Amino acid sequence: MNRAVELTHPGWISNEDKTLYYWTNTDRPSIPMSLVQSPLSQSELAVLPGSWALVDLRGDAPLLVSDPTASRPLYYAKADGRWIIADDIALFQKNVPWRLDGPQSEVFRHFGYSLGGGTLVASVRTVQAGTQVELCERGAKEDTYLKYRFVSDRERDPEVFADAFSDALDSAFARMRDCYRDSQFIVPLSGGLDSRLLLSWLRRLGIDDVLTFSYGRPNSEASQAEVVADSLGYEFVNLTYDELAMWSRWHGSSGEFFREHTWSGIALPHIQDWEAVRQLKEQTIISDQAVFLPGHTIVGNMHDEWLLQSKRPTKLIYDALADHHGNLQGQKSQVLHNRLFLRTVREILSDVGYDGEPGAVQAAVEWFNLRERQAKYINNSMRGYESYGYRWALPMLDREMWDVWLRGAEALTATRDWYAAFVAQAYEDAGGEQISLYDPRTTLTKKYIKSGVVQRIGRSAMGPFLNNLRVALIDKKHPLGFEAFDTSDSRLSLMWARARGITRVGQWSEAFLANRWGGSGPVPTSVEGY
To answer: What is the CATH T-level fold of the domain 3-144, as seen in this structure?
Structure first.
């Protein structure tokens, strides 16, 4: 079959005849090349550890496979009778019509990322998390090999589950340590549950070459993060933001480079660590071979727990997903009538073997979060580290963590209560000093915000509008300096949009689609599909 392959990112290794490609970003692959020499079944793919991607050209139909977190985006398109395969969506500009996908751009406004296997480029598709794609003569055959389903006999004993969870963390972190050998690990530290657990487990395994950092406005989260780092014996750096300088960089060549190299055709560039990593690099306080460890985790992907008690949850799942994920424009009704959203939710329900039972309801909500938001937007923050030349690892999203999580009972996994107690114990065992969790909302909120007056306003006819306006007023000086990424529209127009229910990320998403988020952008300008 006629095909063209362009795999340009570092980390690809191949067999001698260049018909099998395996990607990893570690010093020593978590999967030996010999293991993937023979075709793997779906069950074998589902248990492969680490971060990886596969491109197999040995058969008549090329096979593309993504790991459960879509660690290395893979893309494909058919043009002039041949399949084109690449790991950078920009490479398709010379091969396919560079047109914006109309339906995907519409969901992007509401979600900040594409849905399903589509991208913002009309003729280009991506390999979704936990999916294999066979490129046949007549078209692409997509198949989800990862079955995100809770076991039938879920573990109810919190202590037994804690032991299993600890074993999974031990295995994942030990593999990470071995794969990255003598690398320096860099931990973005908020002092919250996830980064606190990550740092506690580094200490538990005796990993010493660690630098932690926090960032934002003075007195945001740094003091609490520093206590966490100091109590575990790790170096801490506080990086303060200059809003005007950051605004200037975002609207200049630095911002343009970042947007171009991190959008991946599927998501809004993840800007949260952008300025902090720049400062770390310019101050030369981290190694060129440093590995960033964000606290992305399998935990906490459930929301709207009341769904588990509903007798007729199916329609409510659609409503909850639209409200939780598709809320950027404050137009849930439009999302609920969007064909692409409806099709994506049906795919999710099929993937988890949905039968209306609480376990399937929880799996559906979590799998949507993991496959759509986490894999495309949250994990896309890895592109930011790569744009500065650094590597990364996601030990709390490694295979062992998925396996143990899907064994936990609803009472242990549907909320973060069990997890909070587990982290507190792990932190104490590692030598940590118990302190409260950092909450940016309490930093921003005045006492009157929680008063009965506000509650009464919320119940009034003007409640939603006034509540949105209140949040906008509180958030105009964000502790992480997010207003530096706002568009150049007047403050009044931005405030008015927020009052109408358009979130800050929603404003960014619309500006990004129009290539005016900070200046020029990579999004196609002509539209196909409308």
So the answer is: Glutamine Phosphoribosylpyrophosphate, subunit 1, domain 1 (3.60.20)
Cα–Cα separations (whole angstroms), residue 522 to 99, 257, 260: 11, 10, 6
Cα angle 323, 74, 251 (rounded to 5 degrees) comes to 65
CA-wise closest residue to 383 among 257, 247, 199, 279: 257
Contact present, 221 and 438 (Cβ < 8 Å): yes
Look up tokens 């593309």; give the residue: 64
* CATH 3.40.50.620 domain extents, the chain: 158-298+379-438
| 10-residue stretch averages of pLDDT, the chain, 530 residues long | 91 92 86 78 91 93 96 96 96 94 97 98 97 96 96 97 98 95 93 95 97 81 84 95 91 94 95 95 93 96 96 96 97 97 98 97 98 95 95 97 98 97 96 65 43 54 58 64 82 81 94 93 82
Reported as half-sphere exposure (CB side, CA atoms, 13 A), residue 96 has a value of 27
In 3D space, the residue among 204, 224, 220, 265 whose CA is nearest the CA of residue 212 turns out to be 224
